[in-house]
Design a protein that fits this description.
This protein is an alpha/beta fold. 46% of the residues lie in helices and 18% in strands.
């Protein structure tokens, strides 16, 4: 809801914005048609506001590849995003067909992949 974000932005010190997938895979991950547009609009609002914010992506290997993450990161970097964080996917009770821990960790153990991500942002982190 970009307009809601714009309405409350002056009352915030910081914002975290989830970027769930490359724009062309957003519908697959959210299950809702056209969800990439409000996220893109929210990102634009944050960039133009000059507020402190981070973009973050949860690495679920069932839906995202390293190439997907690099595609997201390159796009964000080109738009001027300064802070990007990768988050470990965490399984939960009722999670149907959860990914193997080794598949989740593959995002975080590939030095070449991580080095490329680090090169794109002044502040890159892992959670």
């Amino acid at each position: 809801y970009p307009q809601h974000l714009a309405d409350v932005l002056s009352m915030t010190d910081w914002v975290g914005l989830d970027i769930k997938a490359p724009w062309d895979k957003y519908e697959l991950l959210t299950g809702r048609k056209g969800m990439e547009r409000p996220v893109q609009d929210s990102l634009k609002i944050l960039i133009e506001s000059r507020k402190d914010f981070e973009c973050r992506t949860t690495c679920d290997p069932r839906y995202l590849t390293k190439e997907d993450i690099l595609k997201i990161a390159r796009d964000l970097s080109e738009q001027g995003v300064q802070n990007y964080v990768l988050q470990h996917y965490r399984t939960f009770e009722g999670d149907t067909n959860p990914p193997d821990e080794s598949d989740i960790n593959s995002f975080f153990t590939d030095k070449e992949f991580l080095d490329e991500l680090k090169s794109l942002f002044p502040n890159f982190g892992i959670r």
